Amino acid sequence: MQAQFYGGPLRWGCLPSLSRPPGIASRSLWGRIIDSQHRLAAAPNSTSDSFPAGSRHFSQARPLQKCPGILFHSRNVLLNARVTPPLAATGLFGQNRNLSLFRSKSATSSPVLRLAKIARLEADADTHSHDVARQVALFMELASIDSRTGYQGIVSRWERMCEFDPRSPLLRSDIAFELYLTSLIRLGLPQSVNPAVRRREALLALPPPDPTTHETPVEPSQPPSTSEVIAQRVLSNSSIKLGVGRALLNDSPAPPTLGAVAMASRSSGDSTGSSPFGTRGSSGADPVHVVIEEPRSAVWMRLFRFILIAAVYGFIALTVLAFLLENSGLLKAGRQSMKYEPQTGSGVKFSDVHGVDEAKEELSEVVKFLKDPTQFTALGGRLPKGVLLTGPPGTGKTLLAKAVAGEAGVPFLYASGSEFDEMYVGVGAKRVRELFETARKQQPSIVFIDELDAVGGRRSGREGQWSRQTLNQLLTELDGFSATEGVIVIAATNYPESLDNALVRPGRFDKKVAVPLPDIVGRTQILAHHMKGVKTDPEVNIQVLARGTPGFSGADLQNMVNQAAIQASREGHKVVGLKEFEWAKDKILMGAERKSSYITPKDKLMTAYHEAGHALAALYTPGARSLHKVTCMPRGHSLGLTQTLPENDEHSVSFKQFSAMIDVSMGGRIAEEMIYGKENVTSGASSDIRAATNLSRRMEYGFSDKVGTVYHGDSDTTPPSPETLRLIDAEIQALIQQSIARTTKLLESKVEELHKLAQALVEHETLDKSEVEKVIRGEKIRQVEEKLKSAAPESSTNLTDSKPTRTSAPRPQPVAAA
User: Fold this and answer.
1) 166: burial class by Cβ within 10 Å (0-12, 13-18, 19+)?
2) How far apart are CA 177 and CA 338, in angstroms?
3) What is the pLDDT of residue 564?
4) What value, to the nearest 5°, has the Cα angle with vertex 370 and ends 368 and 374?
């Protein structure tokens, strides 16, 4: 049976002679070889070639797994070896490939046979652990291969013997000890020689073991002092000089362990992780505990890797956290305190303000007080503490405040109501305090608060206390200084109805000055003032321009003059003529022409009929506003536009004028229905219907006998009952139906004029009132070439490249002066 066990490994040892046979990679064959090796290691030592079947030696032996490292190593070498030429051409191992695992002293010796011999010796040594002759034979065979693997096997077996079997008779063998010291020298550990000597001497000093436990006689040992002699001889025979060897014997660190030997092997460049000889642990009750010491370089590398990874993840976490906090606003500190710098020498005088003569007279009293306060205080009077300017946007409220400061020659502090509104509680009140503290330091001075309704709105019980802090602080500052301090507060608002009653009461804002839209005289003065620096044509009549711009504010007039000057410069004119002023006025009133928008001829004609209906209703309806211009070209957000203007400034509207406005609004839809039929009426009249409905609703409040003289539009009053709402809706419907009947009758009597005006609009696109009247009378107007030549080129876009599109934007209602 033992011969059969030996057959597998021996036959495997002969496989390399076949120059990588096919069976070398077979896993099933490899498993059988390993199983045979285990059984061979478990079998007792016997000189017979076989054991009887069913012998109990197999069950009594320990499976020690004898030296699989040799077979593993040889198989890996052969698997990684390249295929050599045939045996006849290259010999047994080939002429170009040496498969030996160790340096061979003879070129003809087989490395696999030597491996098999070492495996057999190691198996015998493991089986007879106290047989000194077998142990020494294994040591000598491992040393004969002269490689680090062999020396590591000797060192590991000796140190394992010293650790787990300190009474082993092998410890007294000088030959084995000399081979162990030689292995240490070969492994580059000469400093471990002296500790090894001391360790052996200490173990030899122990009581001898029981003789009955030895399987073989113990080799006679020399006196313990011979260990040093052996060490000296080994050091002398090595490459280390005698002086260095004596120094190593006198001073050396602790004896090496298995881990130290392995680490020395790795540090010297050996890629083998562990020795295949004797490095495996013993089985059964005597396990081998191996402690591997980690090199210092690996510790530093792991620490550096940990720090690097922690730094990267920390940076990412901090970046994400900062981004979230920045967006949430938690890291943002409150806005820094605003420094209100007084503005001196603004250069604005009352002579620069036009169209608001009454407001200038009211504010002249403030100027006199700032120049000479004693004139008012001598008789016991006092000047109002605050002045509130109210009026539409662009009428010159801020300009008036600057003019007061310029006339009085005092510092002027400006603040907007929105500046006091902040997300942090208390910031608005703090800024109010800072504003008035700066004003007191610069007194006499003027504090101007624009858009007062942003901070001085009415308070309600639904608001929190924090939302009223700014207003409360403003109320305190307005009532907290005397009239002789020389600080005047001027505020402006477009919506005085929304201000808190406590803010506008006497004692805070005593004087309320209205700044309305300028009349024709004021518009003439404003136009003359803004046209001083513009080179205008002498034929331009300012009064004509003023008469044609009702409802324009001072800012609108300034914008019109500026737009006209820019247009003249674009066209290359040396002066600004009436044509540029008319172009600028139409652009403000009706919006810019969209010449790049392509309209199909069918849609253009339908738009022309729609606008012609508006124009005829404006011409022939009593009480209607005067027709200004009519166009079928898209302007602003509309496809076409009919513009009407009042002859003079209007301050009130009569029932007749309201009815005329509704008739003009419904004229476009009625014209479409007359020409194209009711089923083809478009949604272009949606804005006209909305305008007519709003006008009718306004007329019901005082012009309807059924509804009565009752106002239902204020949200603060009690809402009307459902019956009243149905009555109001019925009256609105009745007014619109009456308007439709009147306008239909008018346009049916003017069908010829309707066709003429629509065709003229298609041809000329834009007509003013005089041209509309000529078309209705059948007179000739300017040709298309003259029209295009005189028109202002707003865009050079090629219309043929545009895609046809139909806009359904609603047409605006006729503009009425406020």
Assistant:
1) middle
2) 92
3) 92
4) 80
Type of residue numbered 577? G
pLDDT at 579 over 60: yes
C-alpha distance across the termini of the chain, in Å: 125
Residues with Cβ within 8 Å of residue 804, at least 6 apart in sequence: 598, 599, 600
Q: What percent of the chain has pLDDT above 70?
A: 68
Q: What is the largest CA-CA distance in the chain?
A: 152
- Map tokens 């603040």 to a residue: 415
Mean pLDDT confidence for 466-493: 77
Mean pLDDT of 413-427: 78
- Whether the full predicted model's pTM is greater than 0.85, yes or no, is no
Check 362, 407, 477, 611 and give the catalytic one.
611
Contact (CB, 8 A) for 151 and 186: yes
Q: What is the DSSP letter of 803?
A: P
Distances (CA, A) of 553 to 284, 328, 390, 560: 110, 43, 14, 11
How large a percentage of the chain has pLDDT more than 90?
A: 12
Q: Give the CA-trace dihedral at 791, 793, 797, 800, to 10 degrees.
A: 20
Q: Which two tokens stand for residue 3?
A: 């011969």
Strand segments, DSSP code E, in 584-696 are: 626-631, 641-645
> How is the beta sheet containing 511-514 ordered, strand by strand?
412-416, 445-450, 487-493, 386-390, 511-514
What sign results for the dihedral spanned by CA atoms 423, 425, 426, 429?
A: positive
- Residue 187 sits at the vertex; the CA angle it makes with 186 and 191, to the nearest 5 degrees, is 95
Q: Backbone dihedral region of 285: left (phi > 0), alpha (psi from -120 to 50 degrees) or beta?
A: alpha
> For 119-153, b where at least 16 C-beta lie within 10 A, e where not — what string?
bbbbbbbbbebbbbebbbebbebbbebebbbbbbb
pLDDT digits (tens, 9 = 90+) for 747-777: 999 999 999 999 999 888 888 888 898 898 8
Tens digit of each residue's pLDDT (9 = 90 or more) over 10-20: 445 444 444 44
How far is 333 from 645, CA to CA, in rounded Å?
A: 54
Average pLDDT over residues 200-216: 65
Q: Give catalytic status of residue 611 as yes or no.
A: yes
Q: Cis ω on the peptide bond leading into residue 373 (within 30° of 0)?
A: no
Quote the CA–CA distance of 638 and 592 in Å, as a whole number: 10
Task: Tell me which long-range contacts 416-421 makes (C-beta under 8 A, separation of at least 24).
Answer: 416/449, 416/450, 416/451, 416/454, 417/449, 417/450, 417/451, 417/452, 417/453, 417/454, 417/455, 417/456, 418/451, 418/454, 418/455, 419/338, 420/454, 420/455, 420/470, 420/474, 421/454, 421/455, 421/470
Q: How far is CA 256 from CA 182, 297, 558, in A?
A: 14, 19, 101
